Amino acid sequence: MKLSELIAQNTHMKFATDAGVRMHALLRMVTLDDAGGDRGDAELVARIRANKNLIPFFGPNSRGEVPIAGIYRGKFISRRIDRMVVDPDARTVWVLDYKTDVDRVARREKYAAQLREYMTLLSEIYPDFTVRGFILWIHDWTLERM
Fold first, then answer.
1. Do 111 and 79 contact (CB within 8 A), yes or no?
2. By percentage, how much of the chain surpasses pLDDT 90?
3. Edge-to-edge strand list for the sheet holding 62-72
4. Cα 86–89–94 angle (5° rounding)?
5. N or C terminus of the chain with fewer C-beta within 10 Å?
6. Is residue 139 within 8 Å of 102, Cβ to Cβ?
7. Which residues pair with 143 in a beta bridge?
8. CA 52 centroid distance within chain
């Protein structure tokens, strides 16, 4: 590979990483409120409201950037969950991870493994709850259950 190709590849990767960091920061600020008190970037709020399945992840019972740590497969891990909802009435925990990739296949197994880590640790914290994991594909705003 030529040096110019390596530089171009690195520049592209840095741009993608920076875009993902910016999007995470913007989504962290979004909170939906049926009483008319939505907060955050208006365009993002509109996109989220357009998909009724996303609304609970940004509602008043949701939490963003949730720290989680524990032993997974004999190894200590420490992570942050992008969005999480605990519904005690339905005895369900929902986990949402944002991904900015356009190609859903390239890193799917890596992302699925990440969600399995979250779900396993949350199952230990909430032993009588069902834990469900989802990816929000930011490039087209689709929600995929893992």
1. no
2. 65
3. 62-72, 75-87, 92-99, 130-137, 142-145
4. 25
5. N
6. yes
7. 136
8. 16
Cα(132)–Cα(84) distance, integer angstroms:
10
Amino acid at 59: G
Q: What phi and psi, each to the nearest 5 degrees, are found at residue 134?
A: -140, 150
Nearest to 126 by CA among 64, 66, 53: 66
DSSP 109-139: HHHHHHHHHHHHHHHHHSTTSEEEEEEEETT
Q: Where are the beta strands (DSSP E) in 35-89?
A: 62-72, 75-87
- H helices of the chain, in order, are 3-28, 42-49, 108-125
Owner of token pair 């929902």: 94
Helix (H) / strand (E) containing 52: none
What pLDDT digit, counting tens, does each position of 53-72 carry?
999 999 988 999 999 999 99
